[in-house]
Design a protein that fits this description.
The complex is a heterodimer of chains A (362) and B (68). Helices cover 66% and strands 1% of the residues of chain A. Chain A is mainly α and 362 residues long. Chain A has one domain. In chain A, strands 1-2 form a two-stranded antiparallel sheet. Chain B is built from 2 helices and 4 strands. Chain B has a 4-stranded mixed β-sheet, covered by helices on one side. In chain B, helix 1 runs parallel beside helix 2. Classes of the chains: A mainly alpha (362), B alpha+beta (68).
C-alpha cells in the first residue's frame, strides 16, 4: 500500500476512534476518559485488589476488547506472531515508570488528546512534556539505542495474554466477591458505559489500531526521526473528531462535554510543571519501549510477550502508585509522586544510556 | 550490496538501521526484517528516500531490496 493510502486509512481510523471515545463518555465513562489506557489498567488493578483506592476499581472491558480486537484481526491477517525475549525485565521497569508518569498527569497519551479535545488546557503542559520526553528518547535512538532482538516463541506463549483477557471478562461478568468494583458515586471507577458497549468499542479500536499501527508516541517520534507524518495524522484525526463530537454533545448539555480552561477540569489538576514532568517521563519511557500503552496492548494481542510484560509493568506501577500515594488527584500531585517521577526520569535515562553506549563492550 | 539484518528488532530500530546504512550513499541495499510492521516502515522510508523497493517474503521473513 502506498504512503498516501496508508495516511488516509489512519486518518479514517483515527476519526472513528475519536467518535467512539467521545460517545463512550456519553454512555457513562468518566469525562474526557472515553479511553485512557493508564487509567483503565489502574482501575483493573484496583478491581483485582492490587490496590485499594475505592474510587478507581473496575475491570474495564475496553482493555479486554482492545487486546481481543487486535488478536482477532492479527489472526485474520496472518500477522499473529508469538515472540519475545527482548529485555523483558527492562521493559517491565520501563512500563512501571511510564505508569508513574501517567498517573502524575492523570492520563496516558491517548487521554491527553481526549483531554485537549474536551477543552482541558492543562493537557497542553502534558503535551509539551510528552514531546520533550519523546525528543529525549529520539536522541538515544539516533545514537543506537536497542533492547536487542526478539525471538520466536511457541504459539501458547503468544496466546496466553489474550487468554488472560478472557478470564478477566469472565470475572467482570461473574463479579465474584473477591473482585472490587467502585461503589456508585465513589469516583471515576464507578462511571462506565454498559459492558457490551465498552467491549465492542474496545474490539473496534483494537482492530483499527492493529490494522493501522496507530501509536501516540510514534506520531511525534517518526516526524522528528524520519519526517514521516503518517502516525501523527492518526493522532490529529482522533483529536479532531473527538473535539467535534464533544462540541456537538455540549450543544445539547452545556458544560458537560467541553469546558475550555484550566480549572474545574474532570479528573485533572492544574499543576503545570508536574503535568509536564509526568508526561515527559511517559513520553521518554514509551520511546524506549517502542510504543505507547495503547500500542503495547495491541502488540500483546498480536502475540508479543515483551509487550505483555510491559503491561504487567504498567499494572504494577498503577498498584504501587495508589498503595504508596504516588498518584495525583484533582487536588494536585503528591510529594511522594513528585519524588517517584524524578526517580523514574533518572531510571529511564540510565536504561537509555546503558542500552545505547555500552553495547560495543558486551 | 550492503545488507541490514534487522530481524527481531522492534519499531523503529529497523528504520533507524536502514537510515544509517542509506547515509553511506550506496545505490542498492538489502534489508531483512521479520515483522509486517517493520517491513511496511522500512519500505515507506526507503521509498521516501527515492529508492525502488521490492519485497520478498519467505517463512515470515521479509527481504527488501532497495535500489536507486
Amino acid at each position: 500500500m502506498d504512503t498516501k493510502k496508508e495516511t488516509w486509512l489512519i486518518i479514517a481510523a483515527g476519526g472513528i476512534i475519536g467518535v467512539i471515545a467521545a460517545f463512550l463518555v456519553f454512555f457513562g465513562n468518566p469525562q474526557n476518559m472515553g479511553f485512557c489506557i493508564a487509567c483503565f489498567l489502574r482501575d483493573t488493578a484496583g478491581a483485582l485488589g492490587l490496590h485499594r483506592a475505592g474510587a478507581v476499581q473496575y475491570i474495564r472491558p475496553e482493555i479486554i476488547g482492545l487486546v481481543l480486537g487486535s488478536f482477532i484481526l492479527a489472526c485474520f491477517r496472518k500477522e499473529f506472531s508469538p515472540r519475545g525475549g527482548s529485555a523483558p525485565l527492562t521493559r517491565f521497569v520501563l512500563g512501571f515508570f511510564v505508569m508513574i508518569g501517567c498517573l502524575m498527569f492523570l492520563g496516558c497519551p491517548f487521554r491527553m488528546i481526549l483531554r485537549l479535545a474536551g477543552g482541558d488546557l492543562n493537557a497542553i503542559f502534558g503535551l509539551v512534556g510528552f514531546t520533550g520526553g519523546i525528543l529525549a528518547g529520539v536522541f538515544f535512538l539516533g545514537k543506537g539505542y536497542s533492547l536487542k532482538r526478539t525471538y520466536k516463541l511457541p504459539m501458547l506463549e503468544g496466546q496466553l495474554f489474550t487468554g488472560i483477557q478472557l478470564v478477566m471478562l469472565i470475572l467482570l461478568l461473574a463479579a465474584p466477591a473477591f473482585i472490587y468494583f467502585s461503589e456508585a458515586g465513589a469516583g471515576p471507577g464507578a462511571k462506565h458505559a454498559p459492558i457490551l458497549l465498552s467491549l465492542a468499542a474496545g474490539l473496534v479500536v483494537g482492530g483499527l489500531a492493529q490494522r493501522t499501527r496507530l501509536c501516540m508516541v510514534g506520531g511525534i517520534r517518526d516526524v522528528v526521526l524520519f519526517r514521516q507524518w503518517k502516525l501523527l495524522a492518526g493522532f490529529a484525526a482522533i483529536f479532531t473528531t473527538a473535539l467535534l463530537c464533544n462540541l456537538l454533545l455540549n450543544a445539547f448539555t452545556p458544560d458537560t462535554y467541553f469546558n475550555l480552561g484550566l480549572t474545574g477540569q474532570p479528573v485533572a489538576h492544574t499543576d503545570g510543571l508536574w503535568n509536564a514532568l509526568g508526561m515527559f517521563l511517559a513520553g521518554f519511557g514509551c520511546v524506549m519501549l517502542g510504543g505507547c500503552p495503547l500500542r503495547q496492548l495491541v502488540l500483546a494481542g498480536e502475540g508479543n510477550t515483551d509487550s505483555a510484560i510491559t503491561i504487567v509493568g504498567l499494572i504494577a506501577g498503577a498498584a504501587f502508585a495508589h498503595n504508596f500515594g504516588l498518584a495525583s488527584s484533582g487536588n494536585g500531585p503528591t510529594a511522594n509522586g513528585k519524588i517517584a517521577v524524578i526517580i523514574g526520569i533518572a531510571v529511564v535515562a540510565v536504561i537509555a544510556c546503558l542500552n545505547t553506549f555500552r553495547k560495543g563492550k558486551e | 550490496m550492503k545488507t541490514v539484518d534487522a530481524r527481531g528488532l522492534s519499531c523503529p530500530e529497523p528504520v533507524v538501521l536502514t537510515r544509517k546504512a542509506i547515509s553511506s550513499g550506496d545505490t542498492a541495499y538489502q534489508i531483512i526484517v521479520d515483522s509486517p510492521t517493520a517491513c511496511e516502515n522500512v519500505a515507506r522510508y526507503a521509498k521516501d528516500q527515492g529508492y525502488r523497493v521490492e519485497i520478498e517474503e519467505k517463512n515470515g521473513e521479509f527481504t527488501l531490496s532497495a535500489t536507486k
